Amino acid sequence: MVFFAPFACTFAPSRLTSMAKKKQKYYVVWQGRQTGVFDDWDVCRKQVEGFDKALYKSFDSKIEAMKAYTDDPRRYVGNKPKTAPQLKLSSLQRPPIEDSVVVDAAWNTATGDMEYQGIYLPTREKIFHRGPYPDGTNNIGEFLAIVHALALLHQRNSNLPIYSDSRTAISWVKKKKANTKLDPTPRNAELFELLDRAETWLTTHRFANAILKWETTEWGENPADFGRK
């Protein structure tokens, strides 16, 4: 079952369409010349070799590595790592994972119209946009945007992570249920149909994409923001 069909999207970056078939190691660098998740040891080594208090670790899967990268490194390298004995998470200033999709929604307080979109972070190119839908909410838009991105990446056999700045929408996706208090009206019937389809998609598909919080205070405005504040 396809959640949103057809996808009115001609953008198809190579990272969305290709996934490594063979098993390999993934390397998380929390502290080095460049931080992030790397799939090549030689590239990782250049970030940490000779770097004072470098902090890094290898993982067997990309998903595990991406989760670790957004987590406290002390959970993975021990409470007292020799490489950084006084490490504080706040001092790492980790950037977002560059190879990812970022989504956002906008809600017009005057009209009640809602729309949402997603971008490919490395190029900032828009990969989908939907709406406006009447009588919506921002949380519904954020939820639909995440599921739309999941469905799009699923079509392309891609496990890229997805960023959203809505904790509520992320929790809805994890629960596979949009816990909205919005009342159905004749004007938002299409929106509720999309919610039903989104929830059905979540319950009938398995995905390995990490759904991550966009940390606005650390990284600045969500790149998928509509810029209407």
UniProtKB/TrEMBL annotation:
<dbReference type="GO" id="GO:0005737">
    <property type="term" value="C:cytoplasm"/>
</dbReference>
<feature type="binding site">
    <location>
        <position position="104"/>
    </location>
    <ligand>
        <name>Mg(2+) 1</name>
    </ligand>
</feature>
<dbReference type="InterPro" id="IPR011320">
    <property type="entry name" value="RNase_H1_N"/>
</dbReference>
<dbReference type="InterPro" id="IPR009027">
    <property type="entry name" value="Ribosomal_bL9/RNase_H1_N"/>
</dbReference>
<keyword id="KW-0378">Hydrolase</keyword>
<dbReference type="InterPro" id="IPR017290">
    <property type="entry name" value="RNase_H_bac"/>
</dbReference>
<dbReference type="GO" id="GO:0004523">
    <property type="term" value="F:RNA-DNA hybrid ribonuclease activity"/>
</dbReference>
<feature type="binding site">
    <location>
        <position position="142"/>
    </location>
    <ligand>
        <name>Mg(2+) 2</name>
    </ligand>
</feature>
<dbReference type="Pfam" id="PF00075">
    <property type="entry name" value="RNase_H"/>
</dbReference>
<keyword id="KW-0479">Metal-binding</keyword>
<dbReference type="InterPro" id="IPR012337">
    <property type="entry name" value="RNaseH-like_sf"/>
</dbReference>
<feature type="binding site">
    <location>
        <position position="165"/>
    </location>
    <ligand>
        <name>Mg(2+) 2</name>
    </ligand>
</feature>
<comment type="similarity">
    <text>Belongs to the RNase H family.</text>
</comment>
<dbReference type="GO" id="GO:0003676">
    <property type="term" value="F:nucleic acid binding"/>
</dbReference>
<feature type="binding site">
    <location>
        <position position="225"/>
    </location>
    <ligand>
        <name>Mg(2+) 1</name>
    </ligand>
</feature>
<dbReference type="InterPro" id="IPR002156">
    <property type="entry name" value="RNaseH_domain"/>
</dbReference>
<protein>
    <recommendedName>
        <fullName>Ribonuclease H</fullName>
        <ecNumber>3.1.26.4</ecNumber>
    </recommendedName>
</protein>
<feature type="domain" description="RNase H type-1">
    <location>
        <begin position="95"/>
        <end position="229"/>
    </location>
</feature>
<keyword id="KW-0460">Magnesium</keyword>
<dbReference type="Pfam" id="PF01693">
    <property type="entry name" value="Cauli_VI"/>
</dbReference>
<dbReference type="GO" id="GO:0046872">
    <property type="term" value="F:metal ion binding"/>
</dbReference>
<dbReference type="InterPro" id="IPR036397">
    <property type="entry name" value="RNaseH_sf"/>
</dbReference>
<comment type="function">
    <text>Endonuclease that specifically degrades the RNA of RNA-DNA hybrids.</text>
</comment>
<dbReference type="InterPro" id="IPR037056">
    <property type="entry name" value="RNase_H1_N_sf"/>
</dbReference>
<keyword id="KW-0464">Manganese</keyword>
<keyword id="KW-0540">Nuclease</keyword>
<keyword id="KW-0255">Endonuclease</keyword>
<keyword id="KW-0963">Cytoplasm</keyword>
